[in-house]
Amino acid sequence: MFLKDKKIGIAYTGSFCTFKKAFDELEKLVETGAKVQTIFSFNSQKINSRFGKSNDFIDRAEKLTKVKPILTIEGSEPIGPKKLLDILVIMPCTGNTMAKLANAITDTPVLMAAKAHLRNQKPLLIAVSTNDALGMSMKNIGLLLNSKNIYFIPFGQDDPENKPNSMVAHLEFLIPSIEKALNGQQIQPIIR
Ligand SMILES: Cc1cc2nc3c(=O)[nH]c(=O)nc-3n(C[C@H](O)[C@H](O)[C@H](O)COP(=O)(O)O)c2cc1C
Q1: Cα atoms found within 13 Å of the Cα of residue 154, Cβ hemisphere only
Q2: Count of CB atoms situated within 10 Å of the CB of 1
Q3: Domains in the chain, please, with CATH?
Q4: Res 1 pLDDT > 70
Q5: From the CB of 41, is ligand 1 less than 6 Å away?
């Protein structure tokens, strides 16, 4: 299979309502034989919410991948010089992390991983998940869409009636989006 032995980073940021689906997709990714390294933003490591306890998510990531998650900025830094990943996926990616990424801010393990990985001119795939995608975050999404080596998992409005600015990635396209991005292509259509 194409993804077997590919080195794939899966980075979690604080869109907690998306975690269940993101973990389901992580499980499928591990089944392809990919070597998966998870990374957690500081907030995703410490916020417990109605969607679950942060420590349980970290434990589950380690059990699934059999690799200790990266939880610090210094833990992410070697991704650059040691060329540890073929592709990095931020899944889910908050409005907060997109805003920082679009402005070259590097103050979490996930953002350090993105910076280190992009230094190697390798693909970074983003799974948008934010209530303000069609609001304050739209300019950041636009910037990232137009940035070299950055790709998106297809995304769309999840609840236009109640949350008119909200958009989320369709995580079931994780594997085909990775395959395309590894070939330097954006999966289409992006908006669905
Ligand atoms: C229960 C809960 C759910 C949240 N869901 C989202 C979300 O879906 N999308 C988003 O952009 N932010 C969401 N947030 C806010 C982020 O967690 C917050 O902006 C945080 O600073 C993100 O940090 P990070 O991007 O470094 O992980 C949520 C917060 C809480 C407490």
Answers
A1: 13
A2: 11
A3: 7-182 (3.40.50.1950)
A4: no
A5: yes
pTM of this structure: 0.98
Q: Is 166 in the pocket of ligand 1 (CB under 6 A)?
A: no
Which atom of ligand 1 sits closest to the CA of residue 49?
1
Cα 103 from Cα 144, distance rounded (Å): 10
| Amino acid of residue 59 | D
33 torsion bin: left (phi>0), alpha (psi -120 to 50), beta (else): left
Closest ligand 1 atom, CA of 94?
A: 11
**Given this model, what pLDDT does residue 63 score?**
98
User: pLDDT tens across 94-119, in order?
Assistant: 999 999 999 999 999 999 999 999 99
Cβ–Cβ under 8 Å, residues 2 and 81: no
Quick check: 113 and 79 in contact, CB under 8 A? yes
Mutation to probe ligand 1, out of 12, 15, 18, 40 (largest number of atoms < 8 A from CB): 15
Average pLDDT of span 156-161: 98
User: Residue 62 above 90 pLDDT?
Assistant: yes
Residue located nearest, by CA, to atom 31 of ligand 1: 49
pLDDT in tens, 8-17: 999 999 999 9
